[in-house]
Design a protein that fits this description.
The protein is an alpha+beta fold. It has one domain: Jelly Rolls (Sandwich), CATH 2.60.120. Helix content is 27%, strand content 19%. The protein contains 7 helices and 10 strands. Strands 1, 2, 3, 4, 5, 6, 8 and 10 form an 8-stranded antiparallel sheet that branches. Strands 7-9 form a two-stranded antiparallel ribbon. It starts with 21 loop residues before the first strand and ends with a helix.
C-alpha cells in the first residue's frame, strides 16, 4: 500500500508577478492585480497606524512637520513603514511591495528611456490611509511647502520625476484617481495594482470623494537629486547613499 504522506505546500517566495501593463492616460501606466494581498494584512498595518496616531504630539509636529498629516482635515495619514511597522508580517509584506514596485519602475523606464537618465535617488516610502469624508484635492507631486524653522521651501519635491503608487484595496466607494488636464474617466485601480506617473504639474491629480470604507496604499517618489534638509537628519549621508545604491540595482 502506498504511503498517504504528502508534503506541506511551500510558502510563496514572491507575492508579486509580472503582468501586462495598461495606459491610463499618456504617461500614466498601471499594472493591475500584480501583487497578492494576504488576508488580514491591511488591517494589521492599519492597526499600527491607529496605534501611532495618538503618540504624535504638538511638540513632535513642531519639531518635524511631516507629522502634520495626523492633524490635517483632508488628505491621508502619511506613515513611515520603514521605521514604524511593528509586526514581522507587515515588515515582510512591505519588502514584497518594494520588490514589486522596483520591478514595475524598471519596466516604466524601458517604456520611457529618458526617465532612466533623470532618476538617481529614492525618497522615503509612505504608507497612506484615509477614511471618509477625506479625499485628495488636485495637486502636483512637485509642489512643496516651507520649512517652518527656516521659512525656506523644501527642495526635494522639486527634484521628483516619477511617483509610484501601490494600491492595496478596492473595497470602498469613490476614491478614484482623476487627472485634471486629461479627458478621461476617473480610474479606480483594482486591489494589488501599481500605478506610475510623472510628478509634474501636467499630471496634477486628485481622488474622487471617498464615500465609505478605508483606502490604503504605499507611495514612493523617485528623484534626480536629494536635499539633505528635507530628510530631517542633516548628518545622515549614509542614508542618502544607501538609497542611491539601492536605486541603481533597478537597472541590473
Amino acid at each position: 500500500m502506498k504511503s498517504q504522506y504528502t508534503k506541506e505546500p511551500k510558502k510563496k517566495s514572491n507575492l508579486w508577478k509580472s503582468v501586462n501593463y495598461k495606459e491610463i492616460v499618456t504617461g500614466v501606466i498601471a499594472w493591475e492585480n500584480c501583487l497578492e494581498i494576504p488576508e488580514g494584512i491591511i488591517d494589521l498595518m492599519n492597526q499600527d497606524v491607529d496605534n501611532w496616531i495618538p503618540t504624535i504630539t504638538d511638540e513632535m509636529i513642531e519639531e518635524n512637520d511631516s507629522y502634520i498629516t495626523v492633524k490635517n482635515d483632508n488628505g491621508p495619514i502619511r506613515f513611515n513603514p520603514e521605521l514604524e511597522f511593528t509586526t514581522d508580517e507587515a515588515k515582510t509584506f512591505f519588502k514584497q511591495v518594494q520588490k514589486n514596485a522596483l520591478d514595475k519602475i524598471s519596466v516604466y523606464c524601458k517604456l520611457f528611456p529618458d526617465v532612466e537618465e533623470e532618476i538617481n535617488w529614492m525618497e522615503n516610502w509612505q504608507y497612506i490611509t484615509y477614511k471618509p469624508p477625506k479625499n485628495m484635492n488636485y495637486h502636483s507631486d512637485n509642489s512643496t511647502s516651507r520649512n517652518p524653522k527656516t521659512n525656506q521651501h523644501y527642495l526635494n519635491p522639486y527634484f521628483r520625476r516619477i511617483t509610484c503608487l501601490t494600491y492595496l484595496n478596492d473595497d470602498f466607494r469613490g476614491g478614484a484617481l482623476d487627472f485634471r488636464y486629461f479627458d478621461h474617466n476617473p480610474y479606480k485601480p483594482p486591489a494589488g495594482s501599481v500605478v506610475i506617473m510623472p510628478s509634474s504639474y501636467v499630471y496634477s491629480h486628485a481622488t474622487t470623494p471617498l464615500l465609505n470604507g478605508r483606502k490604503s496604499a504605499f507611495l514612493v517618489s523617485c528623484a534626480s537629486h536629494f536635499d539633505i534638509d528635507s530628510m530631517g537628519n542633516k548628518n545622515d549621508y549614509t542614508e542618502v547613499k544607501r538609497r542611491e545604491l539601492r536605486w541603481k540595482k533597478v537597472w541590473v
